[in-house]
Amino acid sequence: MAEFIVVLNAVIGWLRVGFTAVLVVAAVLATLAWAERTRRLNAFGAAARFARKLDPLITPVERRAVRFGGTHASAPWWALLALLLTGAALLGLVGYLRDVLSNIYYAMDQGPRGLVRLAISSVFMVIQLAIIARVVMSWIGGTYSRLGQLAYKLTEWFLAPLRRVLPTIGMVDIAPLVAYFGLSLIRGFVLGAI
To answer: Hey, which bits of the chain come out as E strands?
Structure first.
């Protein structure tokens, strides 16, 4: 298992380098496409012709951007942002997998006590992730989706009493923030007691 964790560390390193290179190339291409769309390039020049070849890559993002109030010219920047977020999510996912596997490896190395600590830590982590998911879902309108409902079921038992005690700040509910940090403190106390 330790060898697999070392391999995942190497994969993360290569992904970071590769993603940085792809992002730099994409930034240059996005700048070129933006310059062509805003008519900063000669429409008959080689650079503008090359930029127009990028349109099939940018068109799906452009449709969504225009639907949500963006402009035709800003589509390359939105495509670059989508690429950045996709790469960050991929790196985060591989890093998370590495962390989970290393936690399991070290917990198994400590015996039953380590496995109990891992289980308790995992429960707290799932609840904290559900709090984050619930907040994000409330921002993007996914409160009634399956993920939103699952996050509600996992967190409402903890958030409802906090809402009765904590005041709101304007229209902002601070109960999820207090719950998130409160869970971190409780997890530290519980794991310290074991």
So the answer is: none
Identity of the amino acid at 102: S
Beta-bridged to residue 193, according to DSSP, are: none
Report CA torsion sign: 53, 54, 56, 62.
negative
- Please give the C-alpha separations between residue 69 and each of 62, 89, 108, in angstroms, as whole numbers: 10, 25, 52
Considering the entire predicted model, what is its pTM?
0.63
* Cβ proximity of 34 and 109 under 8 Å: no
How many Å apart are CA 19 and CA 23, to the nearest integer?
6
Read off the pLDDT of residues 3-21 as tens digits, 9 standing for 90 and up: 877 888 888 889 899 999 9
The number of residues in the chain equals 194
10 Å Cβ neighbour count for 112? 9
Q: Tens digits of per-residue pLDDT, 41-81?
A: 788 888 888 888 877 878 887 888 778 787 878 888 888 88
Which residues have a Cβ under 8 Å from the Cβ of 107 and sit 6 or more positions away? 114, 115, 117, 118
- Locate the domains of the chain by residue range: 1-110, 112-194
The C-alpha atoms of residue 94 and residue 8 are separated, in whole angstroms, by 8
User: What SS3 class is residue 143?
Assistant: coil
